[in-house]
Amino acid sequence: MNFSEIPENPFIFLSWVTAIGLFISLCEATIKIKLEKRNSYRKRLELINNLYPKKLA
Length: 57
Hints:
It comes from Prochlorococcus marinus (strain MIT 9301). The protein contains 1 helix and no strands. The protein has one helix spanning 10-51.
């Protein structure tokens, strides 16, 4: 493929740029949601461990 030539129809070029941007945005959102879930799980475990300590002596 020769990428040095810009297509003559700007609609095709803009649609490709938009599609790539949407894909990047979707990946970013997915990663943020996964990190948020993991952090929430860790905070919940930490709160539970603080409420119910293992050593009662």
